[in-house]
Amino acid sequence: MSVADTTGVVILSALLKRLADGRAVEIAEFAAEEGFARATAFMVSRRLREHGFIVADPERGLALGPGLCQFAWAPFGLAELCGPAEAVMRWLLDQVEGAVSLSADGTELVALGNARRGVGDPSTTLELEQAIRSPAGVRRATLKLSLPRAQNASPAFAQRALVRAALTLEGYIRDPVPTDASVRDRRAPDDASPAGGASAGRKRAARRR
């Protein structure tokens, strides 16, 4: 690896750490603070933008892009939900006042809404949740809606909106395509079936003759 490549990796690491704090970054200011050459820092940021890992905001600078979100959600098999999830969750919050979160395997992936303070307190909030399943019926994530009990929307209306949101997200989920090896593992050998066993028996008898 060349010196330029090594420098690029260092800039990449520092830039992503800065963006992970949730703050937008102005690339010239970032280069000056970290002691990087501006030209190299701009080159790295341009390549990251080209791949969707960061996005440019004319007013705020650079911010994390959907490409990195997909990386973060990929271990849960939900990379395809990264973009649509926030849009669907915001639609849900347009229907009912409260807070909504999406989690998988016990990890909260994203949370939106203005009622986070009371979440978990049954005296002030009503908790609703809906499973998000793959086409094969496997539970992949959970969409949870927390409603202030003082709000006007009925629980039945909120539940219908939650189910609709979950079904919309399910439309983006795909089951993994089986590899050649997994297909071979699932395929039964000839001797495992009655017909195959009989055929194999005839072949062995013919060899003995």
From TrEMBL:
Residue segments, region Disordered: 178-209
Protein name stated in the entry: Transcriptional regulator
Organism expressing this protein natively: Labrys wisconsinensis
